[in-house]
Design goal:
Blueprint (H helix, E strand, L loop, with lengths): L7 H10 L6 E3 L1 H8 L7 E4 L3 H7 L6 E6 L4 E6 L2 E7 L1 E4 L11 E4 L3 H6 L9 E3 L5 E2 L4 H6 L2 E2 L6 H4 L2 H13 L2 E2 L1 H10 L8 H12 L1 H4 L8 H11 L2 H5 L1 H4 L15 H11 L5 H6 L4 H8 L5 H15 L4 H13 L10 H10 L4 H16 L7 H11 L13 H6 L4 H17 L6 H13 L2
Parallel strand pairs: 2-5, 10-11
Antiparallel strand pairs: 1-2, 1-8, 3-4, 4-5, 6-7, 8-9
Length: 450
């Protein structure tokens, strides 16, 4: 059994508990420790109820913050140290619903009952913090060694549909595979994911789509694709992202594409770096509606922008994330024919400076996912890099002149913002205007015409 790297604060905490109860670490901290990988989230538990925990830690360096008293859960902090504590408990859920919150909660002294209310056996291994002894009520250590996800009890998914998404995420992050019974139960109960809040679904999907980043030590290259394919296999793509599933089997011109619209989208997702995976996965969701409406895929970028806004709003993404991803989808076809003038390219780069780096990458990912290689020069990136090399300003604040100069020139307040915006655009075409004197001369001429 490995020697766990136990923070000194956690040992002190266990000592404060020791007159009343044994304090255990549980869940990812123990599982990942057995695997020899880092875990920064500390979950702890004992038979002590919350009021007794507060009494035990009175006049200590630890602060107890309420989180969910009904669930017996509090956060214990001391300086930079933080751990989530939960009293041993057993839960019961409303029949047939699969919602994440239990209907009734009762506390217990029995560690076996606590283990049985958890999701998977590998997450129900307990570490006595003071002695280092392992308590393994469900055989989770063996599962960890065999890289197996096995439910803690048969009705684990019936009780909580979120655990189906966690099954996928854990499998991808850790390289674990569900045993036959667990997988069969997940398939049977996949519909219960509908009962989970949008915020919870979003959190799990984000975790799935970044699964390759969770444990760098494991080098889980391609884990995000594994997670996606597992979601698809369970029918969850059709359920949670029906707009994407609508692309399944939608043919594309073989002259430009190796795959149908769905597999192309999945390939783009596979190739994309983590920050761009949602945009890559959803960049073509406008194609099915475009074909239905027009008989071709023209304009799918414009249609897709609105669809993506709807998807990400439904999943409760932040306004900034929705704006960023939908803008990438809207403009991923820019200069597709390679006939934009240099002036228009530079103006486009300037007007979309906040997304341009990501957009350049998305255009390249899209190309690789279409033909297996880049078949055209990314003229948008070429224009962008040329502007960077010339140190062209991308913001009004980066100009060599400002509003004060316009005041001295007598430019009315109502015209100042427009004049500076015009200078910014013209500087992109003529970098010589970076020079303050030239910029002032430019403004004088423009001001004289007002």
């Amino acid at each position: 059994m490995p020697r766990f790297a136990i923070p000194s604060e956690l040992k002190t905490l266990a000592e404060l508990f020791s007159p009343y109860a044994t304090l255990y670490a549980v869940g990812g901290f123990v599982r990942d420790g057995i695997m020899g990988i880092a875990c920064h989230d500390i979950d702890i538990c004992s038979k002590l109820k919350v009021d007794d925990v507060k009494k035990a830690l009175l006049n200590s360096d630890f602060v107890v913050l309420d989180k969910s008293l009904r669930m017996g859960t509090v956060i214990i902090v001391s300086g930079a140290f933080k751990a989530e504590y939960t009293t041993f408990r057993q839960d019961s859920y409303a029949a047939g619903r699969g919602t994440h919150s239990p209907e009734t909660v009762s506390f217990t002294d029995d560690i076996m009952r606590d283990a049985l209310r958890r999701d998977f056996a590998c997450n129900a291994v307990y570490l006595d913090i003071l002695t280092g002894d392992i308590v393994d009520p469900l055989g989770g250590v063996r599962d960890i060694e065999q890289k197996t996800l096995r439910y803690a009890k048969e009705d684990v998914f019936e009780a909580d549909g979120l655990r189906i998404l966690r099954l996928v995420r854990f499998g991808a992050e850790l390289g674990f595979a569900p045993d036959a019974a667990t997988l069969a139960s997940a398939r049977e109960n996949a519909w219960r994911v509908r009962d989970i809040s949008a915020e919870r679904i979003r959190e799990e999907l984000v975790g799935c789509f970044e699964a390759d980043m969770k444990h760098p030590e494991l080098k889980r290259t391609g884990a995000h694709l594994e997670a996606f394919e597992a979601l698809d296999d369970l029918g969850l793509v059709d359920m949670l992202l029906p707009e994407l599933a609508a692309l399944k089997g939608l043919p594309q011109p073989p002259k430009y594409h190796l795959y149908d619209a769905y597999r192309h989208s999945v390939k783009a997702f596979e190739l994309a770096p983590p920050p761009l995976r949602w945009a890559a996965l959803l960049h073509d969701v406008g194609k099915a509606p475009a074909v239905a409406q027009y008989g071709n895929m023209h304009g799918h970028d414009v249609i897709g922008e609105g669809i993506v806004k709807g998807i990400l709003t439904r999943l409760r993404f932040s306004k900034e994330s929705i704006r960023h991803v939908s803008q990438l989808v809207r403009w991923h076809m820019v200069d597709i024919n390679g006939n934009m003038s240099e002036a228009k390219l530079r103006r486009f780069v300037l007007e979309h400076a906040d997304i341009i780096e990501d957009l350049c990458t998305l255009i390249e990912v899209d190309g690789m996912a279409s033909a297996g290689q880049l078949t055209r020069t990314n003229r948008v990136r070429a224009a962008y890099e040329s502007m960077l090399a010339l140190e062209v300003p991308f913001k009004i604040s980066e100009l060599s002149v400002n509003g004060g100069d316009l005041i001295e020139l007598g430019v009315p307040e109502k015209d100042r913002a427009a004049l500076l915006s015009e200078l910014l655009a013209d500087t992109a075409m003529n970098p010589a205007l970076k020079d303050r004197q030239r910029a002032l001369e430019y403004l004088k001429k423009k001001a004289a015409k007002l």
